[in-house]
Amino acid sequence: MTARIGVVTFPGTLDDRDTQRAVRVAGAEAVPLWHRDKDLKQVDAVVLPGGFSYGDYLRAGAISRFSPVMETIIEQAKGGMPVLGICNGFQVLTETHLLPGAMLRNNHLHFVCRDQKLRVETDKTAWTSDYSAGQEISVPLKNIDGRYVADERTLDMLEAEGRVAFRYLDVNPNGSLRDIAGISNEAGNVVGLMPHPEHAVEPLVGTGRTDGLGFFTSILKNLLKGANA
User: Fold this and answer.
1) DSSP 38
2) Where are the alpha helices (DSSP H) in 101-187?
3) Taking a C-beta distance cutoff of 8 angstroms, is the pair 148, 193 a contact?
4) Is 35 annotated as catalytic?
5) CA count, 13 A, side-chain hemisphere, 110
6) Which is catalytic among the residues 95, 121, 198, 199?
7) Active-site residue (options: 35, 87, 95, 121)
8) 180-189 pLDDT, tens digit each
9) Beta-strand relationship, 164-168 and 136-143
């Protein structure tokens, strides 16, 4: 028995195949989900991958938020189903208000593509439990609308509740407030981040490291633990 993890494809999604492979490398079953379908095919968790859904028209993630598949995902996430949003997926999660804040154009107004060092700030979420708090990892980053912003009250709340999941190290590549690279919801089942862990799961591709694999092994172990409880 293994977990079934859905990977959503919107028009303009780029990294769905890479994400499906990362799920399989971790040992779970990857289940493709189409944006027009409300049926989640009995998956145990969902990943919203990176790309430029609907061409980033209006603003990144704004149209995807109204896709039929998102109606079901929002409902299931509020009920505890684990959801990971990567890059454009993170943008979608802020548009749905499953995660607070918003994503704006990078402060330097340029697309950035680089290997990015991160610090894991919490191992208390469904997607980060295979890491240690304070652990430093390196995964690829590629975005133009990656600047995380929120009002001071929200930022203070995220800090106080331990919901900053990842922070940029060495350099802030997009001007995100407080160097925030990723956050979680209060329950810890929903996580969003701008860097791409799915590109760092095998030594032959991406960074040449496997620092991103922990996202997918974390959720697999947590799902199997719940199934066997």
Assistant:
1) -
2) 152-160
3) no
4) no
5) 5
6) 198
7) 87
8) 999 999 999 9
9) unpaired
Q: Is 136 a catalytic residue?
A: no
Place of tokens 């802030």: 172
Name the catalytic one among 95, 121, 196, 199. 196
Give dist(CA 229, CA 17) in Å, integer: 32
pLDDT tens-digit map of 126-177: 999 999 999 999 999 999 999 999 999 999 999 999 999 999 999 999 999 9
Q: Looking at the whole model, is its pTM more than 0.70?
A: yes
pLDDT digits (tens, 9 = 90+) for 17-47: 999 999 999 999 999 999 999 999 999 999 9
Percent of the chain's residues with pLDDT above 90: 88
**How does 39-63 read in b/e, with b if 16+ C-beta sit within 10 Å?**
ebeebbbbbbbbbbbbebeeebbbb
CA atoms of 151 and 96, how far apart (whole Å)? 17
CA-CA-CA-CA torsion sign (59, 111, 166, 80):
positive
DSSP symbol at 128: T
Own/partner pairs for 58-65, CB < 8 Å, 24+ apart? 59/145, 60/88, 60/91, 60/103, 60/145, 61/88, 61/91, 61/92, 61/93, 61/94, 61/95, 61/103, 62/95, 64/10, 64/35, 64/88, 64/92, 64/95, 65/92, 65/95, 65/96
Residue with tokens 């912003």: 149
CATH superfamily of 4-228: Class I glutamine amidotransferase (GATase) domain (3.40.50.880)
